[in-house]
From TrEMBL:
Domain ABC transporter: 260-499
Gene3D superfamilies: ABC transporter type 1, transmembrane domain (1.20.1560.10), P-loop containing nucleotide triphosphate hydrolases (3.40.50.300)
Keyword NAD found: no
Subcellular localization: Cell membrane
Main subcellular localisation: membrane
Membrane topology: Multi-pass membrane protein
Name listed for the protein in its UniProt record: ABC transporter ATP-binding protein
């Protein structure tokens, strides 16, 4: 019961410290490092037991040492050198045991990624989000095969380690046995010579057995103790690690104006070539800017940089009006982000109630909630949800599933609910029907009045409302201007516009009808 209680306490405390640490990791870079995920798996698995195990190992070490001292005293009765010889005979066993625990730990570390990968196959087989493809493409046999093969390979590796552990211990065990047998024979010989009584020999036999078992426990405890210490080493290393994207020790105050300026910004994801190159852009506060460009041009990456999920490797991002501009790196990330509302392309779908999904932990302001829900189109879909805003999402918890468009309305409400001076929408209407799209854009236009707004979209019909359109290609800004100016320029934007207009049958060129939504495509 005590062990269970202590394990509960340790689990909560250790997990909380891990979560607090995650909160300190203000950037996203760390999450893209496989070693980080290995560490998290090892730390999470060890959290409920390592602290308790280390404590009990220390106690068992102390207990064994006290026992050894007293029983060692008995062995002294047949000669001062006897305890020394017995201990010396056990030293190789202790060292081997410790080395083997060390080997076991390093194998665990080396194979954590393999273990995560094989578990991925099992998790995928049970994952609700993958269920349709698994059934349609008959994927289960592939998943089962991969899981089984990988698990067997993993087990073979670990079995190899266990076999080596066994074989490694045998010679040392044998030596310890020979030493014990030698001492026993010596005691019998002494009895025959009349130096020791029969009673003393019996005592020595008992003491020898006890010393052997104590020394064995000692070597085991030392080996296990080292393993626990390794785990703690990893735990504190994780907690103490300085993140690459860190909050400044002494942040500068937030400037009055929130103009955003990128100066020759270059950025590449860790280990990859730059995806933003020498990009310069100035967005005065209050301006609505649409960012368009090919897939992979770097639009979402630009947004991630503006939110300081990553730091540029070259150039800088400034926030503030003339004379007060501050490098984004010198602002408190939490303070800066509190000024920004964003709908990401891959937004988070929390399996909570609709209300919780909109508030995201913020206190409820009924008026604001009503406004955000109405403007995003959420209000109109509420009657179809059984408990309105209190409807639970997620069938795994007895809730409902939302359609893609319904989700998009919900996350738009989430962004509109936040009182932000900068609004960022990355493909906010990709899943919306034309009517909802028009409504969301009307709300967006109203909300962005007086606010900075950044809209990333492929739907060119909706970008005309922006004060300015920025066209990106391969991490650079290739065109920048108003809709009319860019059409007149006859460059990339004009070409994209004509392309979408043609697909809508509105005719190419400067048609005012323009493209109203996603292009239709036909299979070859
Ligand atoms: N976390 C990441 N790690 C490595 N490369 C990434 C990562 N995220 C994006 N990339 C790469 O960066 C490039 C730019 O991606 P980004 O998502 O910014 O493009 P985008 O312009 O938003 O594209 P889309 O229109 O398809 O949304 C792509 O080549 C992509 O593969």
């Amino acid at each position: 019961v005590l062990q269970g209680y202590a394990a509960d306490q340790f689990t909560v405390q250790t997990s909380r410290r891990l979560m607090d640490k995650m909160n300190d990791l203000v950037g996203l870079e760390v999450l893209e490092d496989p070693r980080f995920h290995d560490d998290i798996q090892i730390l999470q698995q060890g959290a409920p037991r390592r602290p308790l195990n280390l404590t009990s190992t220390i106690f068992s070490l102390l207990g064994t040492l006290v026992g050894l001292l007293s029983v060692g005293g008995v062995l002294l009765s047949i000669g001062w050198w006897v305890p020394l010889v017995v201990i010396a005979g056990m030293v190789p066993l202790t060292l081997t045991q410790m080395r083997l625990y060390e080997l076991g730990w390093s194998m665990t570390i080396q194979n954590t990624q393999a273990s995560r990968e094989l578990n991925y196959f099992q998790k995928a087989a049970l994952n609700h989000n993958f269920a349709k493809e698994i059934r349609l493409y008959g994927l289960m046999s592939y998943l089962t095969h991969e899981y089984t093969e990988r698990t067997l390979a993993y087990q073979r590796t670990m079995r190899g380690v266990r076999n080596r552990q066994l074989l490694g211990v045998l010679p040392a065990q044998f030596l310890a046995l020979v030493v014990t047998a030698g001492v026993f024979a010596y005691a019998v010989w002494q009895a025959q010579l009349g130096v020791l009584t029969a009673g003393a020999v019996v005592l020595v036999i008992g003491a020898l057995a006890q010393v052997r078992s104590d020394l064995w426990s000692l070597s085991d405890a030392l080996g296990m103790g080292t393993e626990h210490l390794h785990w703690f080493g990893k735990y504190y290393e994780f907690l103490d690690a300085a993140p690459t994207v860190a909050a400044p020790a002494q942040p500068r105050p937030l400037p009055q104006r929130l103009d955003i300026t990128l100066e020759n910004v270059t950025f590449g994801y860790q280990g990859h070539a730059p995806v933003i190159e020498n990009l310069s852009l100035h967005i005065p506060e209050g301006q609505t800017v649409a960012v368009v460009g090919d897939n992979g041009a770097g639009k979402s990456t630009l947004i991630k940089l503006l939110l300081r999920f990553y730091d540029p490797v070259g150039g800088r991002i400034l926030v503030g009006g003339p004379g007060e501009a501050v490098d984004l790196r010198d602002l408190d990330p939490a303070e800066w982000r509190s000024q920004v509302a964003a709908v990401f392309q891959d937004y988070a779908r929390f399996e909570w109630t609709v209300r919780e999904n909109v508030l995201l932990g913020a206190p409820e302001d009924p008026q604001r909630l009503n406004y955000a829900a109405a403007a995003s189109g959420l209000t109109a879909m509420l009657p179809r949800l059984e408990a309105g805003l209190n409807t639970r999402i997620g069938q795994a918890y007895g809730g409902v599933d939302l359609s893609g468009g319904q989700w998009q309305k919900l996350v738009t409400a989430r962004a509109l609910y936040r009182r932000a001076r900068v609004l960022i929408l990355d493909e906010p209407t990709a899943a919306l029907d034309p009517r909802s799209e028009a409504e969301v854009f009307a709300a967006f236009a109203e909300l962005s009045r007086g606010h900075t707004a950044l809209l990333v979209t492929h739907r060119l019909g909706s970008v005309r409302m922006a004060d300015r359109i920025v066209v990106m290609r391969q991490g650079r800004v290739i065109e920048d201007g108003t809709h009319a100016a860019l059409l007149a320029q006859g460059g990339e934007y004009a070409e994209l516009w004509a392309l979408q207009a043609r697909q809508y049958g509105a005719g190419a060129g400067e048609s005012d009808a323009g493209p109203g939504g996603a292009p239709q495509s036909a299979l070859p």
